[in-house]
Specification:
The complex is a heterodimer of chains A (468) and B (202). Chain A has 468 residues and is α+β, with helices and mostly antiparallel strands. Chain A has 17 helices and 12 strands. A 4-stranded mixed β-sheet of chain A has the order 8-9-2-12. In chain A, strands 5-4-3-6 form a 4-stranded antiparallel β-sheet. In chain A, a hairpin with a 5-residue loop joins strand 10 and strand 11. Chain A is elongated and about 90 Å long. Classes of the chains: A alpha+beta (468), B alpha/beta (202). The interface between A and B is large, with 41 and 36 residues.
Amino acid sequence: MSIKRLLFFALSLSILAGCANKSMTRYEELAEPLEKKGIDATIEKMKKEQDDLYGSNSEFLYYFDLGCLNHYKRNFKESAENFAKAEQIYEDLYTKSVTNEAAAIVTNDNTRPYRARPFELLLMYEYQILNYLAMMDIDGAMVEVRRSQIAMNSLYQKDQKKVNDNGLLRYLSAMVYELDGSPDEAAISYINTVKAYKEGKLQVPGEVLEFVTEGLRSADRENDLVALGTQIPAMTPKATAIRESGQEIVVIGYAGHSPILGELYMSGTFVSGGVMNLYYKDGETGERKTFTLVAPPVSGAGTGESFHVGFALPEIKKLPNKVDHFEVSLDGSPRIRPEKVMAVDEELKQNMADEKSSRVSRTIIRVVLRTIAAQKAKQAMKTDNILLNLLTSIGTDVAQSQIEQADLRIGLFMPHSLHMTRIPVSVGQHKVVVTANGAAGNTVEIFEFDKLQVAKGQKVFLIIPSIR
Amino acid sequence: MSKLLKICLCASLALFVGCSDSGKKVTRIDTNSVTDLSGAWNDTDSRLVAEEMINDCLGRPWYDNMIQNKGGAVPTVVIGKVANKSHEHINIETFIKDMERTLINSGRVDFVANAQERAELRNELASQAGNATADTQKQAGQEIGADLMLTGTITSIVDQEGGDQVVYYQVDLELTDIQSHRKVWIGDKKIKKFVSKNGVKL
């Protein structure tokens, strides 16, 4: 092999190494500032190191993560602006680049721009609706409701078999329709709320069902609920009280940290007449195992010729959650526990199951093509020097395994679960205390709202982020 | 070129393309030019709809009747709420300003500040009462009451299949007599846009 070829080969390898998997480091880089220094420090780091942490292929995630953090910080305007940018990127990415897709087949899926998982998109609309509601902009919230419906229709057009609906999103839509004075549309959204919960993993939460029943009862559409096979609650005291008085305090709690994605990596290197090395890295624990066996010579293969097959797949990696649920106390009254209205971990599980076949087939195609190419490359570089052959063979295998990376991209600051309760209140000043508790009932964080002013007919939205 | 070189070249090119940034170029264009980039409601829609609808409004029979009833004096108009019932976050302020500009420039109506601006002006008036010199102080209770209020809605319908999307906007405006609550003019303007996105690009 000439010096020129060697240089070219080395250059290609350095380029491949240069475009390392940012997803592997992003969580480690940002989890610490979030835990120790808070949201502002995390946002600052993200903005300062956008290229290193996200890069141009994960632009959606950059704005999505910024939108989430600003939402938790109650910077609703900034959160809405960031989510709007993320949505624009998502829409622009409808057009797929042939170059990127081809590069992904040669290298890995990280060279494709990140297009958002359906549940991330729907969560984004939920946050957007809440952003506008918190800013008391009903028109703005209505726009987000309409946009979410267009997005859901589009997702279903793309793939009917996947779950592209969300009970909480439908429920929030119904609330916004009611605020906008559109009871007929609210009734449709209430029916869709029940349908979406039935389609998903979470049962219709009791309080949600109470409000759905009240909404459909007042629209004279209770029978639609019966047709869905839902057990209708006999009494709807909370929902009736809010419908009659108009004003309420809505508590939305974000508990824990959603799972992220870890890399499951398996590879095998076989050196004819030498050793067989098997390697496994667990996606969830990161535990690595290697086995080395003596390998017999393969007929037809030269001494020192190696064969390498390796593939990487994303796997759900659960994170320890300090916060499991919330308790709310209004004006010193006994605490009530908001119900879980969305389980992000379940959404991710569902999404991974929905996309499994396409993900696995892409990986197989990629690995097979790359393995064939690597073996061809080894043949092309073969010389009379056995030692040099071994070196180039191992070099090609190393390059091959470096290129293989799972696509681990996912929103980093989603909660493990969302909790919600609606409390009817009188006009005037109120004190609300929300405690974020661990699974054992231990208090992790306390949020106090001392002088919460509620006007006639007003709905006050309290955003309680405890992403711990 | 050997197979190895071809493979390396393809991979390198693909990665260079994947990792490259696009350059940015800024060109100033005429503010009256028609520009459609995303297919969303834009400045051109806002300006054209405002001009067309206000010109239609002022050219209808109610105008002469009102002039006659007011003994030749031009009617005074205030702009109320224009609700955004579309699927886009439309900057309603721009649309309202476009309508205000067309109304004032027509010279056919008097125009008074809207509720929000009036509140600010009243604050200023109150501030003057205690701080400005007597000869420059403006008096309260001298405002001109509007005869008519212009209100409206922007609605939209979206139909889409794959990369093709038809967006239909309808702007409805109503001019209502504040005294009698009689609607003197109702107008609408429809815009239909076809937005097509390619599934693939190079």
